[in-house]
């Protein structure tokens, strides 16, 4: 009787794939076995040729919901047919293998029914899960994905859970996090002094405290949250003061879609993302009933998510209203993971702590999604999405293994090997010492989990980035090749790789962001580039305007406003023409003479073509965050929010801008733009109208220049990427105009357009350059 060996690569462990194979083999009356191995899943079957062929054809269609199949390899095998039915056997680990690891998944409908059914033994048990849902990446310590390699190892299965675990017909068969109240993790409530509260029902007691206006630190799936009643202004304002977070909106969790719709507009694509198994935070337009004012200070955009663990479902079912559910940390620090760490770091912020005794192996922040230009786009890629790999275009499978170190802000790193790229989860800003420590540890853990020994390190061109310095240090201490990658080249290449553009593809890349080091050591951020995976040519850019005060100009938008006006105009003449304009009055009270001297002498005033700084200047002129910002991008975010309600009606009133040839490059000239803006300010035009005209002006000149460059260099595809293109108005309007000219427009969706996607671009550039050199 013929036999076949079938190997399946991908995310196929811990997702119920083996019982699915078992059921399918029995349906086709086949004999043999299936087991986990480090490279994925191996199946050996015996039967007639027709039955085996039918079995193989059905495998992708019968895959469990959380599975991802990257490849199926089949070969004939010799040997006698087993004299027993098909069975599941123990895992076999090969140190040289690699397998995909599933992301954490929101509670499935079946488990939610178990959780809410009073007669079920898991009624309101906060750690209910099965092979279709629950923790994966947050609890895994090693591969293969077996219980002994997870933080569930200390919890011995009770007889009933053991029976489920061993029954291939049960959806909890080999569910590594399987547990119940008799054998699994436990939940308790303690006060700020670390004393457990003797309460009969922990969840009800916690909800009682929330209704009293208390702040509770909740240990969740990938870290701690800080929770309070989202309709209690006193509680939310107190959380802001204690957390030292005064402007950035808080995320809100609601028990169901109907509750979300009481406070926000929800389109069909937004509903799909809210209900997705990743359960991200989805940014929505506010409407209807009002939450506490301090939840989202600008009042126009709300970040909602639905419960994604039974613990969260329990809290929301009892509370029956929205809860603020923000990261459990002090401002700018990483989210807390460990109980003792939370007791120390969140002391003075949380009034109470809702704890459990299952360790969180890996910090996973909530992912953030926004519908932009018609599709979901990740702003932060973490829980629910990482570590799903990206299959790369043909040719990359020949590349040597690469570790790309990422950037300084919103850091993630990337492993590239065998034609796929594994982009890490969001880690945060490497300016923070604790984040740097976690960054180093996560690189080691990813290398171990995915069994990758890099031969090439890819780093950003900026010499002061912590990621660049660490990469150089590792390269010098080992036999590793290092590749320095220009920041905006990486932004464009990341989008190209996400969309599967082939190795020889060439595009026009428009990279708009805050700052990135250019080859001439200038700070770039408003770039028009001719790009393929191997090289990048700068064709045009925004004007390089000084940033008086350097880093201080990022924190204080008025400095950029002054620099822009100083760049184009004589101050005294400007004051005479626009004497009663508020921004000029404001700037008159600042030390302009000092700033003018700094700019003239190039003292702590680096020139930058940054689109982010240009938008900061515009926001300051309108009166938004003029003095200072409290989080990155705040001024531009508020400018977009202000413009949105009147954006469509201002399409024909875009502020004008010009183009001028400066050497080999074209530079945008904002002189007429600023005159029009100041004229509107002088006329006391509504601020929202001005904000809309700013966006239209930027979008129009960007599209005009992109189309001109495409025609000049015979390019058919435009890539719009970088953090500024997270702005919905700008991306949609620019893309619309370029598409009308017959060009294809691509922008990041599954990879963050901001620096969270930078490492993917670094990785494919380093790999492509090495391939070109025959390395």
Number of domains: 4
Going across the biggest sheet, name each strand in turn. Answer: 6-13-7-8-12-9-11-10-14-15
Task: State the helicity in percent bands.
Answer: 25-40%
Proportion of beta-strand residues: 15-25%
User: In CATH, what is the class of the largest domain?
Assistant: Alpha Beta
Radius of gyration: 28 Å
CATH homology group of the largest domain? ATPase, nucleotide binding domain
The biggest beta sheet reads: 10 strands, mixed
Distance between the termini: 46 Å
* Helix and strand composition category: alpha/beta
CATH architecture of the largest domain: 2-Layer Sandwich
- Which geometry do the CA atoms define? globular
CATH topology of the largest domain: Nucleotidyltransferase, domain 5
Instruction: Please tell me the overall pLDDT.
Output: 95
How would you describe what is shown here?
- By secondary structure, this protein is an alpha/beta fold.
- The protein folds into four domains: 86 residues, Alpha-Beta Plaits (2-Layer Sandwich), CATH 3.30.70.100; 182 residues, DHBP synthase; 142 residues, Nucleotidyltransferase, domain 5, CATH 3.30.420; 206 residues, ATPase, nucleotide binding domain (Nucleotidyltransferase, domain 5, 2-Layer Sandwich), CATH 3.30.420.40.
- 33% of the residues lie in helices and 20% in strands.
- It is built from 24 helices and 30 strands.
- Strands 6-13-7-8-12-9-11-10-14-15 form a ten-stranded mixed beta sheet, with helices on both faces. A seven-stranded mixed beta sheet has the order 27-28-24-23-22-29-30, sandwiched between helices.
- A hairpin with a 2-residue loop joins strand 18 and strand 19.
- Helix 5 packs across helix 9, helix 19 crosses helix 20 and helix 22 crosses helix 23.
- The longest helix has 27 residues.
- It is globular.
- The protein starts with a strand and ends with a helix.
- The relative contact order is 0.09.
- The model has no long low-confidence stretch (mean pLDDT 95).
């Amino acid at each position: 009787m013929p036999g076949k060996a079938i190997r399946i690569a991908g995310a196929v462990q811990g997702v119920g794939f083996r019982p699915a194979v078992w059921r399918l083999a029995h349906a086709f009356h086949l004999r043999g076995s299936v087991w986990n191995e480090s490279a994925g899943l191996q199946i050996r079957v015996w039967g007639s040729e027709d039955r085996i062929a039918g079995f193989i054809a059905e495998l992708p269609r019968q895959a469990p919901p959380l599975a991802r199949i990257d490849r199926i390899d089949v070969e004939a095998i010799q040997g006698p047919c087993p004299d027993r039915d098909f069975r599941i056997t123990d895992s076999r680990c090969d140190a040289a293998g690699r397998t995909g690891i599933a992301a954490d998944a929101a509670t499935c409908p079946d488990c939610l029914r178990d959780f809410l059914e009073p007669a079920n033994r898991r009624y309101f048990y906060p750690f209910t899960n099965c092979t279709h849902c629950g923790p994966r990446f947050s609890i895994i310590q090693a591969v293969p994905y077996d219980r002994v390699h997870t933080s569930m190892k200390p919890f011995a299965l009770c007889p009933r859970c053991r029976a489920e675990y061993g029954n291939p017909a049960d959806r909890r068969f080999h569910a590594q996090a399987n547990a119940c109240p008799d054998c699994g993790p436990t939940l308790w409530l303690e006060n700020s002094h670390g004393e457990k509260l003797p309460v009969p029902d922990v969840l009800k007691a916690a909800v009682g405290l929330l209704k009293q206006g208390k702040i509770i630190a909740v240990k969740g799936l990938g870290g701690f949250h800080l929770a309070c009643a989202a309709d209690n202004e006193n509680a939310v304002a107190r959380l802001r003061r204690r957390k030292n977070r005064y402007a950035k909106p808080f995320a809100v969790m609601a028990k169901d879609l109907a509750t979300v719709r009481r406070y926000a507009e929800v389109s069909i694509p937004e509903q799909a993302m809210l209900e997705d198994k990743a359960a991200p935070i989805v940014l929505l337009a506010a409407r209807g009933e009002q939450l506490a004012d301090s939840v989202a200070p600008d009042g126009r955009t709300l970040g909602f998510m639905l419960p994604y663990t039974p613990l969260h479902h329990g809290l929301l079912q009892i509370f029956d209203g929205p809860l603020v559910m923000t990261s459990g940390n002090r401002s700018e620090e990483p989210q807390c993971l460990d109980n003792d760490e939370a007791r120390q770091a969140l002391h003075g912020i949380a009034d109470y702590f809702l704890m459990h005794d299952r360790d969180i192996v890996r910090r996973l922040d909530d992912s953030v999604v926004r519908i932009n230009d018609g599709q979901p786009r990740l702003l932060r890629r973490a829980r629910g999405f990482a570590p799903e790999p990206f299959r790369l275009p043909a040719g990359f499978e020949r590349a040597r293994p690469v570790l790309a170190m990422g950037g300084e802000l919103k850091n993630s790193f990337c492993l590239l090997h065998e034609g796929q790229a594994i982009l890490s989860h969001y880690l945060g800003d490497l300016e923070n010492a604790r984040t740097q420590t976690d960054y180093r540890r996560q690189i080691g853990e990813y290398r171990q989990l995915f069994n990758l020994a890099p031969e090439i390190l890819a780093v950003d061109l900026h010499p002061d980035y912590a990621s660049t310095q660490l990469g150089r240090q590792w390269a010098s201490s080992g036999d590793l090749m290092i590749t320095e990658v220009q920041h905006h080249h990486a932004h464009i290449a990341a989008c190209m790789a996400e969309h599967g553009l082939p190795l020889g593809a060439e595009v026009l890349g428009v990279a708009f962001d805050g700052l990135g080091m250019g080859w001439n050591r200038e700070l770039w951020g408003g770039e028009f580039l001719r790009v393929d995976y191997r090289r990048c040519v700068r064709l045009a850019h925004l004007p390089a305007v000084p940033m008086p005060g350097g880093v201080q100009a990022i924190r204080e938008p008025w400095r950029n406003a002054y620099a822009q006006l100083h760049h184009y105009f004589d101050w005294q003449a400007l004051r005479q023409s626009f004497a009663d304009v508020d921004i000029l009055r404001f700037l008159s009270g600042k030390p302009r003479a000092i700033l003018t001297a700094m700019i003239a002498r190039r003292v702590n005033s680096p020139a930058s073509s940054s689109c982010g700084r240009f938008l900061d200047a515009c926001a300051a002129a309108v009166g938004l965050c003029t003095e200072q910002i409290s989080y990155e991008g705040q001024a531009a975010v508020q400018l977009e929010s202000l413009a949105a309600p009147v954006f469509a009606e201002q399409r024909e009133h875009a502020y004008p801008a010009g183009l001028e040839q400066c050497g080999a490059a074209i530079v945008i000239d904002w002189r007429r733009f600023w005159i029009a803006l100041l004229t509107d300010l002088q006329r006391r035009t509504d601020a929202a109208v001005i904000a809309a005209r700013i966006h239209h002006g930027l979008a129009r000149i960007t599209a005009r220049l992109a189309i001109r460059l495409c025609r000049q260099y015979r390019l058919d595809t435009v890539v719009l990427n970088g953090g500024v293109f997270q702005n919905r108005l700008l991306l949609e309007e620019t893309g619309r105009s370029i598409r009308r000219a017959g060009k294809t427009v691509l922008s990041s969706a599954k990879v963050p357009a901001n620096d969270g996607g930078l490492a993917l671009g670094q990785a494919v550039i380093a790999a492509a350059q090495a391939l070109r050199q025959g390395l």
